[in-house]
């Protein structure tokens, strides 16, 4: 190879390394605050199926809405874990802490079978241009088997938590993560109370 070709390759590698600096990428966790409410156990042993999320909320990048209504994200701000997995685990933990129920993310790992199954289908989970995180959808609670007692429960939820900070492209991704965690905590309380 010619020396000029080697210098071009070396320069390209240096430029590529500069573009992929790991310090330029920030990772944020879904981490609801420790549950403070004490609610009655209305669920018993329940298996929580993996949460269903819209594509923009299940991707690695943290999504937000701009004033023009578009949903955007940046590769510089990503979730520390797969959103479906982390939200499912956080929701199960929150419901259990609040109510004393044994809520475990699927697959069920215990010897004694669950009494109920919980399924959460999220239709909207976004840091919206109106300055709030919106978490909307429906959850279902059903007996774990056809022979189990208890009926089906179906509840819609529409949670809005103010972000108390800039929105859109100026939104702080850490604030988005904290506010989404707070919204998930509110959903846990609703599911724990079956309301």
From TrEMBL:
Domain of life: Bacteria
Gene3D superfamilies in alphabetical order: ABC-type transport auxiliary lipoprotein component (3.40.50.10610)
Family matches, as InterPro entries: ABC_trans_aux (IPR005586)
Residue ranges of the TM segments: none
Record domain ABC-type transport auxiliary lipoprotein component: where: 28-192
Organism: Thioclava kandeliae
Keyword Transferase found: no
Signal peptide: 1-17
Key words of the record: Signal
Protein name: PqiC family protein
Pfam families, sorted: ABC_trans_aux
């Amino acid at each position: 190879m010619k020396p000029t070709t080697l210098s071009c390759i070396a320069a390209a590698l240096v430029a590529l390394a500069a573009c992929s600096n790991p310090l330029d990428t920030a990772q944020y966790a879904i981490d609801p605050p420790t549950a403070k409410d004490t609610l009655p156990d209305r669920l018993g042993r329940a298996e929580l199926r993996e949460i269903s999320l819209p594509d923009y909320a299940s991707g690695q990048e943290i999504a937000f809405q701009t004033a023009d209504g578009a949903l955007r994200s940046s590769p510089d701000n990503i979730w520390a874990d797969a959103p479906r997995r982390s939200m499912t685990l956080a929701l199960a933990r929150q419901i259990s802490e609040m109510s004393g129920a044994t809520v475990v993310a699927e697959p069920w790992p215990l010897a004694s079978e669950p009494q109920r199954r919980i399924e959460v289908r999220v239709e909207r989970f976004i840091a919206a241009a109106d300055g709030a995180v919106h978490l909307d959808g429906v959850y279902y609670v059903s007996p774990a088997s056809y022979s189990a007692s208890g009926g089906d429960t179906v509840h819609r939820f529409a949670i809005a938590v103010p972000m108390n900070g800039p929105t859109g492209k100026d939104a702080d991704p850490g604030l988005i993560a904290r506010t989404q965690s707070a919204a998930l905590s509110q959903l846990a309380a609703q599911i724990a109370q079956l309301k």
